[in-house]
Protein: Transposase
Organism: Streptococcus suis
Amino acid sequence: KLLSFSEELRQHYELYQLLLFHFQEKNSDHFFDLIEQEIATVNPIFQTVFKTFLKDKDKVLNALELPYSNAKLEATNNLIKVIKRNAFGFRNFENFKKRILIALNIKKERTKFVLSRC
């Protein structure tokens, strides 16, 4: 309904959805072809974003084509910072460490008791 108020808004929204589709499908050729095709006709804000994508094309291609990501590591770092901020400083580092392990649902493996055969 909101898109019916402005034809320009609707066109930009459809362009955004199409770019998002190509990005999620990891179709880099169509993604960059669409950017190069539409860069002259879109809103200046979109033009700035498109120029950034074209300037960093090699990085975007790596993100689309390679299976590597540091998202899990960044999420873990963010969780630790949130725990640290909410705790106002733990007195004991071991308690801080335990709180992080609980939040990450990491179970510490216990060493098994082994009888020696002496």
